[in-house]
Amino acid sequence: MNDIVVGMGEALWDVLPEGKKLGGAPANFAYHISQFGLNSRVVSAVGDDKLGKEILDSFREKKLYGIVETVPYPTGTVQVELDAEGVPCYDIKEGVAWDNIPFTPALEDLARHTRAVCFGSLAQRSVVSRETINRFIDAMSEGDDVLKIFDINLRQGFYTKEILCNSFRKCNILKINDEELVTVSRMFGYPGIDLQDKCWILLAKYNLKMLILTCGVNGSYVFTPGSVSFVETPKVVVADTVGAGDSFTATFTASILKGKSVREAHELAVKVSAYVCTQNGAMPVLPDVYLD
Q1: Model confidence, pTM
Q2: Most exposed residue of 21, 29, 142, 151, measured as fewest CB within 10 angstroms of its CB?
């Protein structure tokens, strides 16, 4: 098997107050994976329009490779507004190219050679892309060392209990933040128990290898059967938090694939995501100190 790591789902432009920036969790994830020297791919779709061509040009510029189909829908955009703390609010346009990612023989072949995939809930809001994501995961190897990461990424009500439940079953690593965990707990009927107990329930119920819980300034946890790692969030001057979570997921995934322990992977992921918060945009170049 080739050690290919895939970020799968939305490819779009984040339209920020200072202008547009390449965005979408899958591209952010794949970009940071590639910075760690791993063989990454983006799977998405763009429109046959100026914005779509600019995304493809940007991917080439950043040496981001993958299967990004051109489809007869507009390229995705998101209006992003930042609050006083630099935390983003999103207005995500619907009926766009990444809602219509086709499942092709090339994609099926890529799935067979994929060591790790990261997918979220947002790109599953449409039937076409949801079915493509599910078929991709089903075509992957079932080996113990194959990682299927569900970075839940709840946005604007673009999710259902059924979609989340199916994704929990298909993944073996779940990444979720504290606000999302509260939403999921309400949806799935877990009463007022503390966050850690909710994580243990999800870990056991869906037979997960790991569950990553991020709590913003209050630190982050990685739960594995029988153990938990907690790392405090460093205090940094925040430029914006766009893409910080994706850099965490990518760093953690790359570290695990390179044979680091859960604790080592967790500590490095926290450092990298804190650094990304100090930079504008989701895809800064990481300093060498993080990449050895």
Answers
A1: 0.93
A2: 142
Each residue's pLDDT tens digit, 110-140: 999 999 999 999 999 999 999 999 999 999 9
Confidence of residue 2 (pLDDT cuts 50, 70, 90): low
Q: Which two tokens stand for residue 6?
A: 């895939």
Are 126 and 45 a contacting pair, CB within 8 Å? Answer: no
- Contact of 212 with 175, CB cutoff 8 Å: yes
For residue 202, which amino acid is it? L
In which element (H, E) is residue 42 found? strand 39-47
Tell me the pLDDT band of 89, cut-offs 50, 70 and 90: confident
Nearest to 280 by CA among 22, 31, 67, 24: 22
Cα(246)–Cα(252) distance, integer angstroms? 10
Domain 4-206 has CATH 3.40.1190.20: yes
User: Residue 164 class from Cβ within 10 Å (0-12 exposed, 13-18 middle, 19+ buried)?
Assistant: buried
Rounded CA separation 164/180 (Å) = 11
Residues 91, 97, 103, 108: what is their CA dihedral angle, to the nearest 10 degrees? -80
Residue type, 43: V
Q: How far is Cα 275 from Cα 233, in angstroms, rounded to an integer?
A: 11
Q: Under a CB-based contact definition with an 8 Å cutoff, are residues 148 and 118 in contact?
A: no
